[in-house]
Structure prediction request, 228 residues.
Amino acid sequence: MNQTPLWMPPPRRSFWSRLTPIQRVGLIGAPLLLLLCGGTALAGALSGAPKATVGTSAAEQLTGTPVAHDTVPTEPAVEATTAAPAVAATVLKKTVTVRKSIAYATKKVDDGTLAKGRTKVRTAGVAGVRTLTYEVTLTDGKETGRTLTGNVVTKQPVTKVIAVGTKVSSGGGGNCDPNYTPCVPIASDVDCAGGSGNGPAYVQGPVHVIGTDIYDLDRDGDGVGCDT
Prediction:
């Protein structure tokens, strides 16, 4: 006679029944996601979409669309140029001396030995000299500056002295020059008669010079004029 056991083990549960609902969803979704990713990659290869490269994000690999990334701007290359060296100007300095004339003055003095109205140059006038010194700057051969460094009178002018006669004749009718005896007429010029002079007045010699030989009748200086 068969005896029925008093205790029997429960029947074994299947693998699927042991999974939780979340595990079942994950188990079903994994093949679908793999199938979806594989199909997308296959479609990208067939359509010429760019392949994923190193550094490509997961979103780019899944969607095939590049995602904007921050980039560091690069400065444009500057072409080096070599400028021609500047040529320095040639600057020279030299000393220049300039001489200028100084006009002389004229002075008149009374002379009692000369007949009134007569004049005679006692001292000839001589111009003076002023020396100017400059420092001249030359840049590339052209004068660009001039500075006065010296101003000296190197020769004093000589004043011209003119004697003016004041002597009044006391005899001879007032027409005889008191510088001679016998009478020599008063004129702008008197020459010895028969000589080479051109007058306008002439005298017959000899005549003695008793004052100043204003007519230059005594050529040899012995005190007697027109004696030849």
Summary: The chain has three helices and eleven strands. The chain has a mean pLDDT of 77.
